[in-house]
């Protein structure tokens, strides 16, 4: 994370709570005490914060310097919001609404259904209708060529902030973006399983989106760095289908793959609801969760209500929406300050009843 990104996040946290503490920022940003103190000193020198023992408070003049200044200064225009689906991004939209709540501004939300050509049309239409800025979730994959989209966005007469996406192919530095740190979320889940003693973990991954690309990359990285067995493998869409839920019999496909590889844990991304069917199928086979199989879900919409309640990675999508909106309003209010920022919001690991140490097999711990 660059210094400008850290400072933007520090200002957002200070505005939200009125104050920030050095210890909390070290944990939140994942940097040293020295780095946090240096960032705070810079923000104090700019007049954005006032120094206090152990941290800083929002300056009385912060409206003139923080990333929230645009919202607080009474921006009352319209921003266009383009998302591919209202279901997955409803919490992002809630965050956008929260950031605009006291500003007099409004958003106009449109749905693109993962169609990049339609997204460009909707963006152009929003600008033509008078939108002062655009929040957008473009349908681009991690390794997909995006120069044409970058040229389109750069030519717009209004600022753009990307949500849950980055422009690949060298375009990252040109358009401000805010996304979940999916890779770090996956790593925390895999580290949790590793600490419990698991060494062979299967993964379900079915999405065809950039977020799914980040999750898969994070899983492979964690598998290799933490030293999981090479037999730890991904169960993909070619086995379960690419629809909104697993194809009929998908639970048995997953359980067959788990049993054939000897995996003692499952990390699942792409369809939280199908995990409920998996739990039922596991019980029908005489498998117990977590004694025979530990499970971690990616997303936390309904995981807490499973039997047993599922450990889960919970992306803070509302926070992503809030930060993206604040950065967009800042860009609208201060067009001369066009330095792009790239902020990642770390998901939380929620440990529940579906994860435990692997059961010993044949006198040995399954994870050893």
TrEMBL record:
Native source organism of the sequence: Labedella gwakjiensis
Recorded superkingdom: Bacteria
Alphabetic keyword roster: DNA-binding, Transcription, Transcription regulation
Protein name: DNA-binding LacI/PurR family transcriptional regulator
Xref: Pfam families: HTH_DeoR, Peripla_BP_3
Molecular-function annotations in GO: DNA-binding transcription factor activity; transcription cis-regulatory region binding
Entry-linked InterPro entries: DeoR_HTH, LacI/GalR-like_sensor, Peripla_BP_I, WH-like_DNA-bd_sf, WH_DNA-bd_sf
PANTHER family found in the cross-reference section: ALANINE RACEMASE, LACI-RELATED TRANSCRIPTIONAL REPRESSOR
Domain HTH deoR-type: 3-58
């Amino acid at each position: 994370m660059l210094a400008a990104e850290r400072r933007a996040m520090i200002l957002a946290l200070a505005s939200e709570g009125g104050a920030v503490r050095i210890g909390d920022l070290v944990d939140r940003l994942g940097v040293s005490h020295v780095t946090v103190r240096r960032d705070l000193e810079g923000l104090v020198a700019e007049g954005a914060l006032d120094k206090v023992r152990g941290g800083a408070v929002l300056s009385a003049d912060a409206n003139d310097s923080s990333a929230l200044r645009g919202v607080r200064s009474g921006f009352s225009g319209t921003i266009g919001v383009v998302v591919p689906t209202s279901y997955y991004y409803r919490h992002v939209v809630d965050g956008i609404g929260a950031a605009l709540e006291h500003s007099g501004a409004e958003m106009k939300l449109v749905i693109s259904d993962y169609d990049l050509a339609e997204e460009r049309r909707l963006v152009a239409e929003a600008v033509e209708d008078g939108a002062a800025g655009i929040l957008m979730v473009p349908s681009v994959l991690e390794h997909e060529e995006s120069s044409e989209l970058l040229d389109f966005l750069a030519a717009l007469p209004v600022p753009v902030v990307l949500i849950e996406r980055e422009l690949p192919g060298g375009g990252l530095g040109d358009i401000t973006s805010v996304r979940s740190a999916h890779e770090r979320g996956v790593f925390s889940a895999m580290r949790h399983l590793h600490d419990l003693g698991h060494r062979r973990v299967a993964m379900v991954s079915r999405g065809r989106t950039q977020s799914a690309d980040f999750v898969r990359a994070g899983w492979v990285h964690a598998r290799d760095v933490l030293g999981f067995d090479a037999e730890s493998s991904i169960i993909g869409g070619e086995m379960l289908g690419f629809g909104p839920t697993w194809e009929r019999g998908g639970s048995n496909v997953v359980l067959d793959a788990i049993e054939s590889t000897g995996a003692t844990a499952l990390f699942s991304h792409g369809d939280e609801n199908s995990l409920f069917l998996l739990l039922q199928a596991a019980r029908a086979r005489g498998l117990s969760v977590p004694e025979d199989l530990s499970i971690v879900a990616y997303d936390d919409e309904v995981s807490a209500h499973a039997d047993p309640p599922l450990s889960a990675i919970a992306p803070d999508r509302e926070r992503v929406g809030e930060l993206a909106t604040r950065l967009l309003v800042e860009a609208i209010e201060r067009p001369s300050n066009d330095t792009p920022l790239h902020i990642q919001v770390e998901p939380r690991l929620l440990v529940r009843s579906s994860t435990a140490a692997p059961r010993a097999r044949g006198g040995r711990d399954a994870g050893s």
